[in-house]
């Protein structure tokens, strides 16, 4: 084993693994954490039996670990095994945006060490992109000589449909091709979310074939998910993250007025759910009354606990005022939307 001096995609990585070709150092970077974890586990399971893992597999949090810790584990001889695997998750020090002294020092030390990793050690790093616009870090180019860098992008088109169909099959779900295509167009392109939505559909249909009607009823649209997360960030007073989601929606082609209407609908539904909870209604009663799936109702119910009734009413008033403002052609809609989000933190 040695570094592969290359940057490859997931399919190329899997092809090499299936041929039994392993390298000493891997760095995974991408937007789909579930796919990255699948790749990491492919390396681990191909090299270590279950009974070998307790002695020969070390896992470290990249937000907390040190170079000395990684170095010591990597230099330790395997115990009753041919290979030792060292995994560093949340290796965010590889990001271009991470410029603190710790990240800089760690990257420099690892760069020097990458060419000297023992032949019986496999060192694995991975980090997840913050949003769809993030690209592989420029820092990674320094590791190409002695490492295999695997970029994990979102699956699209036929590749996504094949992967999703495989997940349905593995879970015993029945779905026709046209309904599968519709599901793929509706769901967020993230394998963790896709798996959760498939579980939800299979449980709901109870062995029957999944139809478009089931999907429309249970699966929130991509924009709905984004709005839920945006409002959730606002409830936690994380304005930076909320604005990032807003910018993502604009990047995807949504208009400020459309985003505002979705935010209004979310806050309005949260208030309705909160008031019904205060009347002693149960989750199943509320979901029937408002026409929501119990799972979605439960999620919004949890969200409602983060707001006071009066705060929700004030936010809705602010949104109505902003709606009138956005009809003017002389204002910057994006700035007005950002100001609105900031104001919601103060009510």
TrEMBL record:
It catalyses: DNA(n) + a 2'-deoxyribonucleoside 5'-triphosphate = DNA(n+1) + diphosphate. Residues 225-343 form the DNA polymerase III delta subunit-like C-terminal domain. Keywords: DNA replication, DNA-directed DNA polymerase, Nucleotidyltransferase, Transferase. InterPro entries: DNA_pol3_clamp-load_cplx_C, DNA_pol3_delta-like_C, DNA_pol3_delta_N, DNA_polIII_delta, P-loop_NTPase. Residues 26-151 form the DNA polymerase III delta N-terminal domain. The keyword Nucleotidyltransferase applies. GO terms for cellular component: DNA polymerase III complex. Its EC number is 2.7.7.7. GO terms for biological process: DNA-templated DNA replication. It comes from the Bacteria. GO terms for molecular function: DNA binding; DNA-directed DNA polymerase activity. It is an enzyme of class 2 (transferase). The keyword Coiled coil does not apply. Belongs to the DNA polymerase HolA subunit family. This is DNA polymerase III subunit delta. It comes from Oceanirhabdus seepicola. The gene is holA.
